[in-house]
Amino acid sequence: MKHVCQSICSILFLTVGSLLFNAGAAYSGGFTFATVHSFTGGADGKDPDKDMVLGNDGSVYSVTAQGALGYGTLFKVSAIGTITTIYSFTGGADGGNGPNGFIQGTDGNFYGTTGARGAYGYGTVDMITPSGTETTLHVFNNGDGAYPDNLMAQGSDGSFYGTAGYGGSNGNGVMFKITSGKTFTLLHSFGSKPDGDWPQSGIILASDGNFYGTTRYGGAYDAGTVYRMTPSGDVKILYSFTNGADGENPQNGVMEGRDGNFYGTTTWGGTHTSGTAYKMTPTGDLTTIYEFTGGDDGSQPNNIIQASDGNLYGTTTRNGANGNFGTVFQLTTSGVLTTLHSFANTTTDGGCPVGCLVQDRNGIIYGSTTIGGTYSEGTVFTLTPPAESSYVLWNNSGQAGLWNIPTTGSATSASFGPYRGWTPAALSSDTSGNAYILWTSTTGAASIWQVTSSLTAAAFQTFGPYSGWTAKSLAVGPDGNVRVLWNHTSDNEASVFDITLGSSFTSQAYGPYAGWQAQQIAVDASNNTRILWSDSSSGEAALWNITSVGGQSSQSFGPYSGWQARSLALAPAGQPRILWENTSTKQASVFTVASTGSFTSQPFGPYSGWNPIDLAVNSDGDSDIMWISGSNQLSIFDVGPTGSLTSSAFGPYSGWAAIAIAPGP
Predict the structure, then answer these.
(1) Quick one: pLDDT band at residue 412, thresholds 50, 70, 90?
(2) What gap in Å lies between CA 387 and CA 407, rounded to an integer?
(3) Which of 213, 216, 211 is nearest to 251 (CA)?
(4) Chain segment 554-579, per-residue pLDDT in tens
């Protein structure tokens, strides 16, 4: 079984059987762009030029630079574009003349800053209730900071932490914290070199309990910095931009990715002087992952977010395919950029976005433009992801049924076989929407079928038989290769085939390890192979990570009395999720494993008569748990990031049993 190659062996003749049932066409394509509101310059304000944020109620909130009274608004927006103005700034004690965005605190009130005016003309910190009552918490006097310009962050102590771009003891900006009870503390005054200068960006509270942000200038090369600050105000410069390929002037902040790294953009610099996107480790090792060209991909990138699909999303203020009005882009964490929309500054489109995007709990991404729209006063736009779907594999005495089940609309299906001696055994899919069915034979041979998103069989390849070995699981990597997990029935040795479909393959054997059996295989976006092992006697599980160059690491879980690990799936950002089953109660639990090795768990059930059997994670990041009943009825739980779930039930269909689930096209 080790390191062998095999040519194609055709022992199955592919035909598409009759549909299991009639269903509508499957949805395909990318995000749908829509302008959902055009600001009028009246009570709804105009020039929305700051970040959008998600409120505690799941709604999206942001601010306009100007409003009915001339000094800006705090507003809420619905998915269909209904704008509710919560507060209109007066330009008096409440500051105004450009509110900088407000976050919703744990107490339900909104906290933010204004960039100018107030009693001394240097800006304010304000609290606004959801009903629109404003309280000025602090008035800047230049000595303690001046002209704050972005969002604050709430710390674990309940206080709010923020920056002001100017003022302080050195005149180069400050870091501060303030309580809802108006207690203000100046934490740090920036000092240009080697310290930072002009902390224009907002800050984030990272998982390590520290705050991270950027300064637009200062640092070793006076081209800006990325810094870390403890809650007590100790600041460490992690990286100084050089004005080379790494960029310069990061007026936007950083965000913490699910992989534990930080991602951000620079406004200028890079080879084309149009800005960059970068990845930085917590210790300050920075890698430029994309350099904007100033062409169709835009220039002057703004803040970025990581959406539920694991990709980064952001806007550029300038350039693009339709002139000098900016773009919306998608960027993988490895640096592959796709322009999703180029603004044209028309009555139905906006132009020159500045603020950060935000994704709501339904997966819809919101953003704003500072100009354009019906009244030329700016817009709110949405990017709606395509309808998610799941593949489900059924078996009826050796006949296979493949379903494509969308979250909305009707499902489609096709049947294959039966073929004498062959049984459908496992299912996987690739990022192009193709499904892969693993068939096993009574002789011990295996066959892989590739089925397109239109449910048409496209290719196949067979392997074996190999004495004592049985194919058990399969997965498809980003390189397009298919990995098949084999199990040796006498001693539980495992072997992984790495297959270039239609060509050759290599294999690598592991074990045997007394009491352990390899259960399932997965491949992440970096082409690393993950194997889930289980000890049936103790209930302990182990997760292996085998890198593309052969490095290997493992992590153990349990044992947990009565529980067995059943299935492995990977989230879009690469985090493993493990489905566990309580063998006596049939309760389910899903472990989500972080890059640090820590994990969270979420239980489901038990539900009388139902067994959890498989797990998939769709591109929206939701977990799809597959349940079957004693009568072979199927139920799929779609579990969102907050733990909320929707469920759908199918069948029973006489003779058919659902056996596996995978992400759909």
Answers:
(1) very high
(2) 6
(3) 216
(4) 999 999 999 999 999 998 778 899 99
Q: Within a 10 A sphere around the Cβ of 361, how many other Cβ atoms? A: 14
Amino acid code (one letter) for 346:
T
Q: Position of tokens 């592991």?
A: 510
What DSSP string runs through 539-587? --EEEEEE-TTS-EEEEEE---TTEEEEEEEE-TTS-EEEEEEETTT--
pLDDT at 193: 80
Instruction: Kindly state the tokens that stand for 104.
Output: 């919703």
Sequential DSSP letters for 363-394: S-EEEEESEESTTSS-EEEEEEPPPPEEEEEE
Structure tokens, 324: 């000098």
| CA nearest neighbour of 63 among 87, 91, 36 | 87
Mean pLDDT score of the chain: 90
Residues 6+ apart with CB under 8 A from 533: 513, 516, 517, 518, 519, 541, 542, 543, 544
Q: For residues 186 and 178, what is the distance between their CA atoms, to the nearest angstrom?
A: 9
Q: How many helices (H) and strands (E) does the chain have?
A: 0, 56
Asked if 71 contacts 374 with a C-beta cutoff of 8 angstroms, the reply is: no
Express each pLDDT in 486-530 by its tens digit. 999 999 999 999 999 888 899 999 999 999 999 999 998 888 999
Residue 279 — φ and ψ, nearest 5°?
A: -120, 135
Do the Cβ atoms of 125 and 109 come closer than 8 Å? Answer: no
Nearest CA among 276, 213, 211, 203 for reference residue 242: 276
Domains of the chain in sequence order:
389-663 (2.120.10.30)
The percent of residues in the chain predicted with pLDDT above 90, rounded, is 77
For residue 42, give the 3-state DSSP assignment: coil
Q: What is the pLDDT of residue 278?
A: 98
Between CA 353 and CA 306 the distance in angstroms is 18
| Tokens 């085939």 sit on residue | 497
CA 131-135-137 angle, 5° bins: 140
